[in-house]
Amino acid sequence: MKNALNFLGLFISVFVFSQTKSVKKLPIKNITKTVIRKASPEVKPNPDLVVIHQELPVLIPKKEDGKFGYVNQNGKFIIKPEYHIAVFFYEDCNLLNSPNEKVRKFGTDEYATVEKDMISYRINKAGKRVYQFKDSDLGKCKLDNYKQQLYQAYVLNGFYGIIEKSRFVNAADYRDYQIYPQYQYLYIMEGDDVANPMIVASHNDRFGVIDVNNKVIIPFEYSNIKRNFTWKLGRMFEVTKDGKNYYYIDSRNNTY
């Protein structure tokens, strides 16, 4: 009987020990781990990109010592002058319609085109070069957004005036003119507001800017005003007083 009890005790001890070991070896399954993700750092606006006039760009191309950089609306250089060419931050339709989907984002107006050492780049508003142009990346621009101009220049007896094309009938009737011919030269700037375009005009051998009501916007004190896309892209004019050094002014005649 004693031997039987001893054998039974030994059997129980072995059974318990084996169960304990097997429990320890069991893998832990289906336990969901809680992953704590770090919050993305908040992107803080650049305090140097001041906005004084809402209609103007926050960064304006400016030339210094023969090279272009970008200043803010206070005239402070934000992107140092190092480029041969620098234009306004604007949409590039060739990149927006690129066959390469990865580069289309660089066609938005968050980027500007610059050129250095005969190489063209797109830069961001921090001045970082984020894309180098490749011919294979360029798509075709769409003309869907083109706006037909309401007005056009008209020459009578050697002087320029402005007519509204849809209603102009008789060149001999001054009432058919929006601005009767009286200027040495007129050029209607490309812009989004076709009902009130800015018009580069020449009077007494000096250039200024007028509107369709013949109101002087920029006084006639410049030797030249470029007829380009600066008004459309940046609501500014590229002017010079000496015929050599060009710079930008806004519609208030403020210099940048």
Question: Notable features of this structure?
Answer:
256 residues, mainly beta, four-stranded antiparallel beta sheet, 34% strand, disordered N terminus
Task: Give an account of the 3D structure.
The protein is mainly beta and 256 residues long. Helix content is 13%, strand content 34%. The protein contains 3 helices and 17 strands. It has helices at 2-25, 93-96, 230-234; strands at residues 60-64, 67-71, 77-83, 85-89, 112-116, 119-123, 129-132, 151-156, 159-164, 177-183, 185-188, 199-203, 206-210, 216-222, 224-225, 237-240, 246-249. The strands form 5 sheets. The protein has a 4-stranded antiparallel beta sheet with strand order 4-5-6-7. Strands 11-12-13-14 form a 4-stranded antiparallel beta sheet, with no helix packed on it. The longest helix is centred in the first third of the chain and has 24 residues, at 2-25.
